Amino acid sequence: MSHKPWILGLTGGIGSGKSAAAEAFAARGIHTVDADHAARWVVEPGRPALSQIAERFGAEILQDSGELDRAALRHIVFAKPEERQWLEGLLHPLIRDEIVTHLSRAQSPYAILVSPLLLETSQHQMTQRVLVVDVPEAMQITRTSRRDGVDETQVRAIMQAQASRETRLAQAHDVLSNDRDLHWLEQEVERLHQFYLTLTHNPA
Questions:
Q1: Does 19 belong to an annotated binding site?
Q2: Per the annotation, does 4 bind a ligand?
Q3: 18 is in an annotated binding site
Q4: Residue 16 is labelled as binding a ligand
Q5: Which of 62, 86, 107, 118 has a CB 3.0–4.6 Å from the CB of 11, allowing a cystine?
Q6: With helix as H, strand as E and coil as C, how does 7-64 read?
Q7: What does UniProt give as the signal peptide span (predicted)?
């Protein structure tokens, strides 16, 4: 019986390159679970969370296909903090259960939980170590605007809802500075990966 993999939390602000880093770890055979994917799974049609959301916010948050209209919902909850709190209260425990289930299937020496809200929610409690992908704020804004076709104001609003860069860095065990190109990112992931392979499931 091999020991249970220890869990690395991978986080970073919007536009920091979390997904690219996670893909580089996955390419090395590391089991990764993305909290954003888990957040989508729990609101799929036919799952109880979706009907509770529709009951509270009305049918306009549903697409014709019966799926959740994320943009419409986001619009409502970003404007009303108390509605966002209600939604988070409903979804966070469900997302947590989903993540735990998927992490428990890991066969690799360590597994990764990728989450933009790792440090803002109780998700970090599931991890033994935290890796922050860090980029300067100006780069976050440029990258996100380019990728999602949104303006700077919107990007800043999302950044406001996330932990500040200082807070993230203060809680990091490891920091990956992703302010160069993909080749640099690959090298950094390889360096960290080799280090993580030396850690047991109870890293200091």
A1: yes
A2: no
A3: yes
A4: yes
A5: 118
A6: EEEEECCCCCCHHHHHHHHHCCCCEEEEHHHHHHHCCCCCCHHHHHHHHHHCHHHECC
A7: none
b/e 71-88 (16+ beta carbons within 10 angstroms → b): eebeebbeeeeeebebbe
Residue 58 is assigned to a ligand binding site: no
Per-residue pLDDT of the chain (204 residues; tens, 9 = 90+): 457 899 999 999 999 999 999 999 999 999 999 999 999 999 999 999 999 999 999 989 999 999 999 999 998 998 899 999 999 899 989 999 999 999 999 999 999 999 988 998 889 999 999 999 999 999 999 999 999 998 999 899 889 888 899 999 999 999 999 999 999 999 999 999 999 999 976 544
Flag whether 89 is marked binding: no
Q: What is the CATH number of domain 35-107?
A: 3.40.50.300
Helix 137-148 and helix 152-161: axis angle, to 10°? 120
pTM, to two decimals: 0.84
CA distance 146 to 150: 7
Fold equal for 1-30+109-197 and 35-107: yes
